[in-house]
TrEMBL record:
Domain DUF2383: from-to ranges: 8-115
Name of this protein: DUF2383 domain-containing protein
Organism: Roseivirga ehrenbergii (strain DSM 102268 / JCM 13514 / KCTC 12282 / NCIMB 14502 / KMM 6017)
Alphabetized InterPro entries for the sequence: CHP02284, DUF2383, Ferritin-like, Ferritin-like_SF, UCP029477
SUPFAM superfamilies: Ferritin-like
Pfam families per record: DUF2383 (PF09537)
NCBIfam families per UniProt: PA2169 family four-helix-bundle protein (TIGR02284)
Higher taxonomy: Bacteria, Pseudomonadati, Bacteroidota, Cytophagia, Cytophagales
Amino acid sequence: MNYTEKLVDKLNDVLRRSYDAIQGYENAIDDMTDAQLKNFFKNQVMERTRFAGELASEITALGGEPVTESSFKAALHRAWMDLKSSIASNNAEKVLQECIRGEETASEDYKDILESDLSLPPSVTNMLRGHKASIDATVVKLKMMEKVA
């Protein structure tokens, strides 16, 4: 596998996780009654949709084929399934805990690609750093919301 194929594979992994997050937050919007949380989740869907578009554009620019759906790999799948179960009981604190867990997993995924042995183009590095910073800020917000839940 050449450099470009490895990079496209890594970016597609992160793209899949964006789709996983979108799906998880959309489930939360559908099932949660708290208006503040619903609004927060809607904003996260919009942000992750933007991330997905940016990732897909970079993949295409590299000559790759962007994935078009989520992967639900084991750890993230469990995190979002636990979120869905939490929503069923409409327990805001538990929902926030599951969101935190999912976002922390996503942050680690971004960290892994940024610290990988791949020499990333500056445009990709800047995009990934921006996404990771936003995800890390979301974790902070979620933890603050959890304290008052």
